[in-house]
Amino acid sequence: MSNVYSSTHPLVAHKLTRLRDKNTDPKKFRELVRELAALLAYEATADLATAPRQIETPLAPLDGVELSEKIGLVPILRAGLGMVEGVWELIPQAEVWHIGLYRDERTLKPVEYYNKLPVEPTVSVCLILDPMLATGGSAVAAVDVLKRWGVRRIKFVGLIGAPEGIAALQKAHPDVPIYLAAVDDHLNERGYIVPGLGDAGDRQFGTG
């Protein structure tokens, strides 16, 4: 899994444990999703390009840098919405584009129901945000959409991945790096990650 980056940071492990706890209420769950998204985005953006920028500190001139790439955040509706604010706090200039996908519970295949991307790409790097990389169907479909749009630098940022979903995304798009807080054991017969944390959307929005 050479393009899979599973965080080893103690803060990530601590917050993920609290997120998994079935007794964590929706308000705290949303807070933890936001915080984990920021921590993972910090790791996922380590290779962003910069350009020189000269500034004046209170004491002297300084040759600094600024981001030179336009960044897009692409949350997969609906569960990915909870990750946006955490990443936006780090990259407030990022554009946010939504892709609506849901998993058909009978076939476990993704169904696209919302896509308002403009005709031409407006960003050079996209971070796909989705808490769970389960079967991998939604992630693969989202990358398909972004590549058709014309974006070539794409990264997947999630909280928990299953080996099955990771393998599916790697097979379809080996050029897309995968950033996760943890890689879990397997999927159950319903396509849920085990041990996982349940349904990330329901737990965020209190609809479980």
Describe this structure in words.
The chain is 33% helix and 29% strand. The protein has helices at residues 10-20, 26-44, 81-90, 137-149, 163-172, 200-205; strands at 4-6, 50-56, 61-67, 71-77, 95-96, 99-103, 110-115, 125-129, 132-133, 153-157, 160-161, 178-180, 182-183, 186-187, 193-194. Strands 1, 4, 5, 6, 7, 8, 10 and 12 form an eight-stranded mixed β-sheet that branches. It has a three-stranded parallel β-sheet with strand order 9-11-13. Helix 1 runs antiparallel to helix 2 (26-44) and helix 2 (26-44) packs across helix 3.
Output the keywords.
208 residues; alpha/beta; Rossmann fold; 3-stranded parallel β-sheet; 6 helices; 15 strands; globular
Provide a concise account of the structure shown.
The chain is of the alpha/beta class and 208 residues long.
CATH architecture: 3-Layer(aba) Sandwich
Specify the structural class: alpha/beta
CATH topology (fold) name: Rossmann fold
Low-pLDDT windows of residues? none
Biggest beta sheet summary? 8 strands, mixed
Total domain units: 1
Approximate shape: globular
So how many helices?
Answer: 6
CATH class: Alpha Beta
